Amino acid sequence: MNSPLSRRLEAAVLALAGDGTLKDRLYAAFNDHLEDIDERELHEEIQSAFGDMTKTMHRARALPGDSVVRASVRKLSSVDAQRYAALVVRAYGLQIESLATEAGRIPGRMAALTRPQTPLAALLALEGGSGGARGAQDSPPLVALRR
């Protein structure tokens, strides 16, 4: 389940999770890993937003010795920087999900999220609460279980 695109998206997410300000991390993620990704390679759900981000990252005029991407990131609002960082994480998640679907399996990390959850009320009923499959008269006292 490893493709060149998924490796690049993962590297971008790791850059976003690194040290520094969000804008510095976003610059590194985009400049080093995402700049030349064609939006059509990505999941349809985010193609438009990724295209908008790419245009935004090339919008500002760079000063001598600066890059267009760095100047563009510097001009982003904090809200826009957060939105674009979240978009990168979402792109990676969708890519992994897509690869897992194609392979017909769920990756280990995602499988943990799909395990059935036992409702709290059912757990409490097993510990001697009222209701549930076992009534209070059938349950040993909770203290006896903690020896």
Q: Your description of this structure?
A:
The protein folds into 2 domains: 4-114, no CATH class; 116-147, no CATH class. The protein starts with a helix and ends in a 21-residue tail after the last helix. 55% of the residues lie in helices and 0% in strands. The relative contact order is 0.12. The chain has 147 residues and is mainly alpha-helical. The protein is globular and about 70 Å long. The protein is built from 7 helices and no strands. Helix 2 packs antiparallel against helix 4 (68-75).
What are the main properties of this structure?
single chain, 147 residues, mainly alpha, disordered C terminus
In short:
With 147 residues, this protein is an all-alpha fold.
**Rg over C-alpha atoms, rounded to the nearest angstrom:** 24 Å
**Mean of residue pLDDT values:** 82
N/C terminus separation: 47 Å
Q: What fraction, in percent, of the residue positions are helical?
A: 55-70%
Oligomer classification: single chain
Largest sheet data: none
Helical run tally:
7
Query: What form results from the Cα inertia axes?
Result: globular
Counted beta strands: 0
Order of helices and strands: HHHHHHH
pLDDT < 50 runs, ≥5 residues: 129-136, 142-147
For the record, the count of structural domains works out to 2
The assigned structural class equals mainly alpha
- Our estimate of the beta-strand percent is under 5%
